Request: fold
Amino acid sequence: MDGLNKRVANCAIAADVNWTPDQQKQVVEYLNSQFYKF
Reply:
């Protein structure tokens, strides 16, 4: 999960989005539940 959190954080920077920590957490949780299943 640490790697996924870092990846989402880096993608947010690259995409120039200003997600709150809660929004970033929601993205990580969605990706994990739909694709990664950590």
Observations:
- The chain has a mean pLDDT of 97.
- The CA atoms of residues 23 and 29 lie 10 Å apart.
